[in-house]
Specification:
CATH architecture of the largest domain: 3-Layer(aba) Sandwich
Number of strands: 8
CATH topology of the largest domain: Rossmann fold
CATH class of the largest domain: Alpha Beta
Number of domains: 2
CATH superfamily of the largest domain: NAD(P)-binding Rossmann-like Domain
Strand content: 5-15%
Bound molecules: 3-hydroxybutanoyl-coenzyme A
Radius of gyration: 20 Å
Oligomer: single chain
Shape: globular
Structural class: alpha/beta
Number of helices: 12
Strand order of the largest sheet: 3-2-1-4-5-6-7-8
Helix content: 40-55%
Distance between the termini: 55 Å
């Protein structure tokens, strides 16, 4: 099966990045959001990101920058009407809020209106794909496609098969991922797949180091950048991913693996989220700031 039209549901950081990368790779894309203002925000973010990429690629030629950006934008049609988006699509990639009930409700309604051939994929960070897939009657055309933030820059795509995913669906999506310019890795539907399972353990222990006052956040960040060549330290990464996302990923992991001490609540993250301090998306670098370096008083 060939994919020619892609529908992305959810225009947040991940969904807009996925729509952008698909458009850059030549696909026609429908980007679905719940209202016009969120659609406008998503399109503005896509434009900025495409400009950033094009300015690097076509340093000497401003007209090519404009051409690249307008081609990308012209391939994406933003809509709040899910029926129109689904009428001709080959694959739906869901990138909505990280909530199992919301995802199941969405896929169950999509299943009734999408064409039988349409492949369903979830970009969930932490929810088992099988759990979401069982809200549909197309388990053979269901899988996880897990992208990384920022989607236009990160080269990896995790392709997650459930036992029922057909070979045809899997192979179509591996080819699709490669056409998006990603290196695809395959993994089973295990908690956190590969990257988030390992990153969760790493960032959790970094926060615990801070809570024990072993070192300051900025020193831990510098240590991991210079001592392990990570592009971002753990606190920079937490701020970048968003503390609300980090909290909801931990809660999901705890639900599916309740005995695992790794997934116990984090006083630091919970306090910051309660205060609405979510990291870069709310304009702050809270996990890096000195005033939470000693959290004994939390
Ligand atoms: N769109 C287009 N270009 C972008 C971009 C975007 N959204 N974000 C960054 N860039 C480009 C910049 O233009 C810049 O290009 P240049 O080097 O050619 O000038 C280049 O990326 C580097 O950007 P910066 O100089 O601003 O900063 P960095 O060198 O720190 O790179 C980074 C930014 C690519 C984000 C890098 O820090 C990095 O790789 N960080 C780690 C990110 C990571 O671990 N992501 C995974 C998170 S886990 C996840 O997503 C899973 C989910 O389920 C939660």
């Amino acid at each position: 099966m060939e994919i020619s039209h892609v529908t992305v549901i959810g225009g947040g950081q991940m969904g807009s990045g996925i729509a952008q990368v698909a458009a850059q790779s030549g696909y026609n894309v429908s980007l679905v959001e719940v209202n016009e203002s969120l659609l406008e925000k998503a399109k503005a973010n896509i434009k900025l990101s495409a400009e950033r990429l094009a300015k690097k690629q076509f340093k000497e030629d401003a007209s090519k920058v404009d051409e690249f950006v307008s081609t990308v934008i012209s391939r994406i049609s933003g809509t709040t009407d899910i029926h129109t988006a689904l009428s001709k699509t080959d694959i739906v990639i869901e990138a909505i809020v990280e909530n199992v009930d919301a995802k199941k409700k969405l896929f169950s309604s999509l299943d009734k209106i999408a064409q039988p051939k349409t492949i369903f994929a979830s970009n969930t960070s932490s929810i088992p794909i099988s759990e979401i897939a069982k809200s549909t009657n197309r388990l053979d055309r269901f899988l996880g496609l897990h992208f990384f933030n920022p989607v236009p820059m990160m080269k990896l795509l995790e392709v997650i098969r459930i036992p029922e995913t057909s070979d045809e669906t899997y192979e179509t999506c591996m080819k699709f991922g490669t056409k998006l310019g990603k290196t695809c890795v395959t993994c089973k539907d295990t908690l956190g797949f590969i990257v988030n399972r390992l990153l969760g353990a790493y960032t959790t222990e970094a926060v615990r180091m801070l809570e024990r006052d072993d070192a300051k956040a900025k020193d831990i960040d510098i240590a991991m950048k210079l001592g392990a060549s990570y592009p971002m330290g753990p606190f920079e990464l937490l701020d970048y991913i968003g503390l609300d996302t980090t909290q909801s990923v931990r809660e999901t992991f705890a639900r599916y693996d309740p005995q695992n001490p790794l997934y116990e609540p984090s006083p630091t993250i919970d306090k910051l989220v309660k205060e609405g301090k979510l990291g870069v998306k709310t304009g702050e670098d809270y996990t890096k700031s000195e005033n939470i370096a000693n959290t004994n008083n939390l």
